[in-house]
């Protein structure tokens, strides 16, 4: 019996092959950088306009020649309260969504009943309902319950929109949580709630952070519920504030763009901090 040994490619061929790989990699990197600059250019232009001294026009030089922070001063003075309102609504929405969605996701992941598939179908249908339909239905209900023009009302509305998404994401991750770990905790004397909080929640940290981050971004950028469920101007999230601010200060674009930049800061910070958890939480359920 003879053994055939594959010929080893010559050094010149290996060098050419490695060179082609480096060329393709460099071309992809350059293309990615160009696309990134193209996508981030509106953000840069918004920042550029926010630093203009006059702010009376959207036409400006590519670089701010005489930067001024007057637009930011006006934005904080006029929209600071609205930014705080949006922050309270977004944080409250995250807390309520996780409190409701996490136990529901774990129940749907661990229980083995025939109606589970129907429950998942109902959740998917809830995700398909247009937001304007939910907002109109909530308006009549809120008017009867006295929740119009209130922060709790907006928190509940945004949570109702985020909970189905949170259940689906966390359930796919919690399907991989071994039931034996929870059973061992129960044998050691832990109750259902303690077992869930001490075992399941730490293991599912990535999915919780993923759902919490997306929920925060949705609540922070919500405009539909803010416009529909607030009528008196007592509670004004920053999205609605920018909408009304634009009409009042169309002659001062630096203040408008400064408000938009300030509204973008929380989202940018959270995305930079939690990006690795987002990737792990979004793919964890598929890998388990």
From TrEMBL:
Please list the residue ranges annotated as the ABC transmembrane type-1 domain: 83-274
Q: Which residues cross the membrane?
A: 29-47, 83-108, 115-139, 151-170, 250-273
Pfam families, per the entry: BPD_transp_1
Q: Keyword Ribosomal protein: yes or no?
A: no
Note down the stretches annotated as region Disordered. 1-21
Task: Kindly indicate whether the keyword Transmembrane belongs to this entry.
Answer: yes
The source's domain of life comes to Bacteria
Q: Which InterPro entries match?
A: BP-dep_ABC_trans_perm, MetI-like, MetI-like_sf
Taking the first listed entry, what is the main subcellular location of this protein, grouped into a coarse class? membrane
Instruction: Give the membrane topology, semicolon-separated if more than one.
Output: Multi-pass membrane protein
**Localization per record:** Cell membrane
Q: Which UniProt keywords apply?
A: Cell membrane, Membrane, Transmembrane, Transmembrane helix, Transport
CDD domains attached to this UniProt entry: TM_PBP2
User: Could you tell me which PANTHER family the record lists for this protein?
Assistant: INNER MEMBRANE ABC TRANSPORTER PERMEASE PROTEIN YCJP (PTHR32243:SF18), MALTOSE TRANSPORT SYSTEM PERMEASE-RELATED (PTHR32243)
Family label: Belongs to the binding-protein-dependent transport system permease family.
Record's protein name: Carbohydrate ABC transporter permease
